[in-house]
Task: structure prediction
Amino acid sequence: MSTTIKRIGVLTSGGDAPGMNAAVRAVVRSAAFYKVECVAIYQGYQGLIDNKVKVMNARGVNNIINKGGTVLKSARCLEFRTPDGRKKAFETIQKHNIDGLVVIGGDGTFTGAMIFQSEFNVPVMGIPGTIDNDIFGTTHTIGYDTALNTVIEAIDKIRDTAISHNRLFFVEVMGRDAGHIALNAGIGAGAEEVLIPEEDMGLDRLLESLKRSEKSGKSSSIVVIAEGDKSGKNVFEIAEYVEKNLPYYDVRVSVLGHMQRGGSPSCFDRVLASRMGVFAVESLLNGKSNMMVGLKNEEMILSPFEKAIKGKSEINKDLIRVSDILTI
Ligand code: F6P
Result:
């Protein structure tokens, strides 16, 4: 590998996601493999601004592959959005002789990286780490699979109560503006209906569906609602609306919240993070920059940050069809 890069910095930024540690481990170890030094930057871009940098060798990432969250800590850094903040960050880069950066995070992280690269010409590679799976250029982001498994486990438990009390549960899941978690977990957990931002089904259709389901003999039901749903009502208002219109239902709401981001990463996320970490370092050493690694058809690919940020990670329409058929 012909490279001028002698020292790589790695950081995690934005919302934490299970598997970020596996990605950090892969970056640190593949740097060591290619005899390049690696430094860890703590607390995302804030750590770059505040000079929170520590040399990391292959043994420094022992026993983290199975851990949720991020040992490097994370932040949504407002200061990095300012030219002054980015100037301070560049001073840290110079101080520690960092020749290239690997940033692990979501679209906010990549937007920051792209601006930083254009201002200071520091080579940067991105690794998509977010439970939302809302990044163009990869079929899976790190953390998404684990979050799905966490959500279906939670809904399975809610189902026990729903059945025991003949109740209708509205379960709100994360995903920001994307419905990937809601749609997939909805199918996986056998939800009656799934409300996602990409497809505004309208509340009347929801009422019709619930009426039909009651008539067909169902005594309990689960409706999964993506937090970014565009019906104009939040999960509590939707529950209230349904209760008012269909008074025979005993309605409850459950907002799963941040428990969806925690926990030990699934095997899928660990393998994905390991592959992405290795590929990000190799790409950087091969002179690539301003790009994000991704998974497509089982292969590692690169996409320019600009595309990753601006492109839309489309919902799989066939899943909507499957979900509709199965709620008969
Ligand atoms: O992007 C991950 C995510 O968990 C989203 O699903 C959610 O909308 C958001 O982060 C919550 O952000 P915070 O942890 O800053 O409240």
User: Anything to note?
Assistant: The first helix runs from residue 20 to 33. The mean pLDDT is 96.
